[in-house]
Amino acid sequence: MKKIKAAIIGCGVISEVYLDSIRENFQILDIVACSDLDEVRMNSTAQKYGIRAAAYEEILKEPEIEMVINLTSPAVHYPLTKQALEHGKHVYSEKMIAVELEQAKELCQIAEKNKVRLGCAPDTFLGGGIQTAKYALEKGMIGIPHSGLISLSRDYRVYGENLPHLFRHGGSVLYDMGCYYLTAFASLLGPVKSVMSFGKKTEEIHKIKRISSRFYGQEIPLDDCNVITAILAYGNGTLVTLHMNSSSVVDETFHLELYGDRGILRLGDPNTFGGRVSIQKPHNEPLAVPLSHGFQEQSRGLGAAEMAWSICSDRPHRASKEMACHVLEIVHGIFCSIETQTVYQMTTTFRKPEILPEGYIGKGFWEPEEETALL
Ligand SMILES: NC(=O)c1ccc[n+]([C@@H]2O[C@H](COP(=O)([O-])OP(=O)(O)OC[C@H]3O[C@@H](n4cnc5c(N)ncnc54)[C@H](O)[C@@H]3O)[C@@H](O)[C@H]2O)c1
């Protein structure tokens, strides 16, 4: 079996999750090197996983490395992804694809021009929970999904005291968490046509009060609205209400629901690979749907592995650049609409990703391995 040799750029918190998960779940990927501006982090990752620590430029010049997995901070996704694409590497990037829409469009063009793949997180939409919901929807179990609901509340006054990028442009709640919800619905419903929204900031500047934080005493400006309501009109006719509030209580609440003319579909947390999926039919209580698809546990790297299998099979990959660019445009459109108080008309589109084959559940002994579902 041919493996795709890949390198990781960005040896931060999520890199260990990726490296452990790829080793555990995905034989198609052979991670051979890692890089980071922070040499201590880079060397400790290299040592822990027995891979090479190398400068990014060195990785880009290495012909045997075919893919770069970009796990750096959102603000540098664009320049680092661009560099790799220009060196003829396939790139799988953590969310979001870029901070600005024009940057995302440019990355898509460079990938096309250089005939290399560009894929993007979140890949949780390929997990057992959302794939099962897609299966139920596509089998007509709730009929026509006329409307839907996306809602999330968190408290970034707590999270942000240790992760101040959550207050800044590109890291605020609609980018950092909205992408999970918007990608889940993109994979189920397809592209959005237009967007209308309202938003507000609950504070202009956040002063860090947590004495254990290394940012204690700093005053961080809030770049983006942190309370947002929006209506998303999908091309298939579904009208979705979106609500995000990152200035509520720390105990997270979420809703991800579709209301059809023959039933209601409720999804689990789109920031996980599993999650409870339920269907409610007339005059019945909501009933849990048995998960029909694999990857129900931590499977970070699933999107990169699916892209690697797609390269080997010469077919489109599911966590596509077009879908990632579209999801970024929804966020961009929401902020434009808040500012102009007009309806934002979307300019990008994408092909809804195919559902994964059902039935590949578990690590395999009697049953086929989950990774077989990606072949
Ligand atoms: N932490 C999580 O739970 C989590 C979950 C899902 C997705 N993500 C996403 O993963 C990405 C990374 O998040 P993280 O939590 O690991 O962040 P992190 O800050 O822990 O790590 C980012 C790493 O990138 C490195 N870096 C920054 N600029 C660089 C450059 N120009 N060249 C080389 N290295 C550079 C930093 O030195 C740092 O080690 C983000 O896009 C984030 O949205 C994080």
TrEMBL record:
InterPro entries: Gfo/Idh/MocA-like_OxRdtase_N, Gfo/Idh/MocA_oxidoreduct, GFO_IDH_MocA-like_dom, NAD(P)-bd_dom_sf. Residues 130-265 form the GFO/IDH/MocA-like oxidoreductase domain. SUPFAM superfamilies: Glyceraldehyde-3-phosphate dehydrogenase-like, C-terminal domain, NAD(P)-binding Rossmann-fold domains. Residues 4-119 form the Gfo/Idh/MocA-like oxidoreductase N-terminal domain. This is Gfo/Idh/MocA family oxidoreductase. The lineage of its organism: Bacteria, Bacillati, Bacillota, Clostridia, Lachnospirales.
